[in-house]
Design goal:
2 domains, 7 helices, 8 strands, binds coenzyme A
Length: 224
């Protein structure tokens, strides 16, 4: 069951005080009560805090849903070979305006809590997300993240991965988060270790990136 103290991670936009939204508050409260009646506390929390509004206010950054206004920042920060070389090929390079628009459109269609922007100084400078697995692996999700090179080595991703993983492992049904890191990416391994992930092994020659077949190191964090 989730720890209610984690609610301090979420903040709501000030416009929610508007009387125009009284109706929505009532509806959420009703949903909260219904969820409590069926003894699903996690569902109850999610009912009163719609995921579209999930925001994690951390010391170094804010994690919040992607917005269409992020397009310029996204192009500026994602169009970087040093980011691309460490992620899947579906992350485009070069990263064009069309790529950014396509991503922001797709992000609107995904469950909002599975893809969040990392905001620093009012600008989206990276992303973090979960890819829930299916079938018998539906208790697992793969975590993915990237950050603008301009922001590296400031502890930002360690905070982001830690907070997001803490939250994700409190979602009902998720018991395992994992990441498979290209063997040439020690910074990512370090981030995962600092966020409580354990190295589980080496997936030898399991990927090809930039024309090179490479090992990946499997990291995972499971529910206690
Ligand atoms: C990996 C990445 C997310 C790290 O983000 P970040 O905000 O710079 O990370 P942090 O500052 O929180 O921590 C980085 C840690 O890696 C360490 N590190 C950095 N480069 C390193 C290297 N070459 N060898 C060993 N450790 C290294 C840092 O010293 C730091 O650890 P420390 O706090 O113990 O000193 C960022 O570099 C990135 O986006 N890279 C490209 C995309 C990517 O790799 N995504 C992950 C795919 S699995």
């Amino acid at each position: 069951m989730p720890d209610p103290s984690r609610l301090k991670n979420y903040s709501m936009p000030t416009y929610l005080g508007s009387p125009y939204l009284a109706f929505f508050f009532s509806a959420f409260f009703l949903a909260f009560l219904c969820a409590l009646c069926v003894k699903d506390f996690d569902l109850a929390l999610r009912a009163i805090i719609p995921t579209a509004m999930l925001t994690f206010e951390l010391d170094a950054c804010i994690l919040r849903p992607w917005r269409s206004q992020d397009v310029e920042a996204l192009i500026r920060h994602a169009d970087n070979r040093n980011v691309w070389i460490n992620v899947r090929d579906r992350f485009p390079h070069p990263y064009t305006r069309d790529d950014a628009l396509r991503w922001l459109e797709l992000a609107q269609t995904l469950p909002p809590d599975t893809q969040l922007a990392i905001e620093v100084d009012g600008e989206a400078v990276g992303g973090i997300g979960l890819e829930p697995q299916t079938d018998i692996e539906r208790v697992s999700a793969e975590i993915g993240f990237w950050l603008s090179e301009a922001c590296w080595a400031r502890g930002i991703m360690t905070q982001a991965v830690t907070a997001y993983s803490d939250w994700a492992l409190n979602r009902s049904g998720l018991f395992r988060l994992y990441a498979s890191v290209l063997a040439w990416n020690p910074a990512s391994m370090r981030v995962l270790e600092k966020a409580g992930y354990q190295r589980e092994g080496c997936m030898r020659k399991s990927a090809i990136k930039d024309g090179r077949v490479i090992d990946r190191i499997l990291y995972a964090r499971v529910c206690d």
